[in-house]
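Memo to structure team: turn this sequence into structure tokens by end of day. - J.P.
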Amino acid sequence: MHETGVKRTVVYVLLITLSACNLSGKKDPERMAVDLPQLREKKEITVVTLNASTSYFIYKMQQMGYEYDLIEDFAGSQELALNIKVAENITRLEEMLRSGEADLVAYPVQMDHTMKNKYLFCGVEQQNHLVIVQRANKGDTVLSDVTQLIGKEVWVKKESRYHERLKSLNEELGGGIIIRNIERDTVTTEDLIEMVSLGEIRYTVSENNLARLNRTYYRNIHIGMPVSFPQRASWIVRKDSPELAQAVNEWAEKVSKSPTLKAAVKRYFEQSKDEDLPAEGLIIKKGDISPYDDLFKKYAEDLGWEWQLLASIACQESRFHNHLESWAGARGLMGVMPRTARSMGFIPDSLDNPETAIRAGVKCLISFRDYFSNIKDPEEKIKFTLAAYNAGNGHITDARRLASKHGGNPDIWEGNVAEYIRLKCEPEYYNDPVCKHGYLRGAETFGYVSEVLSRYRFYKSRSG
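Reply from structure team:
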């Protein structure tokens, strides 16, 4: 073969090899650097985070979460549109950042030498550690030192990081901690915390941030005893984004002295979610449930429901106090979110008017009920409508898909979909491919449906 022919053959083979690489889905290792100037040019920043109660979730069809509130504030400070992506786990967070699918990780990534060599840490620094969760009712003995765990039963999920830390601590102490494993998949870490609050178990282990958030639901738990060393954590960007890291750090310095950070901390880690509302609505006087009974009767006709059910929803949301606002921002007698009100043609400030609030709530309920038109049983349809009113259609659809996948009936609430709505706070369930709406504190929705229906039956038996 002539020299020219050999050269042509080599070039041809190289082209075939390169084509094969492209067809196999492998990406060119060269990636164009994207820093703050490029983000400003396209007027958007893409951020990846994890679904979790302390970082990002969708509640009442609204994006929420401590990390979300902060990154939204940063994006606004830079006049950048915020594009949120959700990863399945920590590994995927890194992968998406490295590949350029995201510009920044808005999740507390633990600092160590390996990670510092790979990324730039930036933003509001956090310190995370594990704590013992114990009940602190009057008369309870509160442990203050890890040595006091000797001889005590501590309940954790088997093969969890809490279980591993407890085993290590037990070895450090020379044994004596009685480690009890919850092996049922249907019991979550948040379930264990609730069991501590109720006195069903004495102790469990949790991450500090998760424990702080749960203390806003269960005020009788003590979370002040650490069982691990604190680990520093913050957001990360790629090494080739130094200007972005600098901008985030400058923002973090300012926000740490502003009401924004204090408001986010208060909203997620301090403000009671199980609000101590006044007792109105729990006592019926002379057959009247509330001052708004005539309005409930008027607008319940639009739903075709009994008015006492509408009254029970209002009681659950506000205890009939029309000027209250929940920790999540829900307003008025029926607890309607401002964004939802706008989407239905209502001005959020008008929700302070009782009749407007009821009209908005009924319109919302009708929309949710219509979404479940394929559920034929009217009683079941009411349960699904109530669940969606509390959590949004997306989460209920996820739970229905999970029920179907695991052999349950997606059209039956109790014992079927209700069980999977509870499990949507666990990564193995909300990261399931059939789920599209991520984390939910499902125990709240589970209880919401039960409490509204129980009160409705009580109202119906006592009112005209």
